């Protein structure tokens, strides 16, 4: 997530293009947004008796 949201001064052209592609996927598609939501929220917790 850090690599997705932050630009680093030492990243090369390839890394910058990969970051842009990741941003387009995550922010530009329902599947990408679902992936972020599921990973952010995490797995359901089981109730411990």
Automatic annotation (TrEMBL):
EC numbers, comma separated: 1.14.13.2
GO MF, one example: 4-hydroxybenzoate 3-monooxygenase activity
Keywords: Oxidoreductase
The keyword Oxidoreductase belongs to this UniProt entry's keyword annotation: yes
Enzyme class: oxidoreductase
Protein name, per record: p-hydroxybenzoate hydroxylase
Gene name as annotated: pobA_1
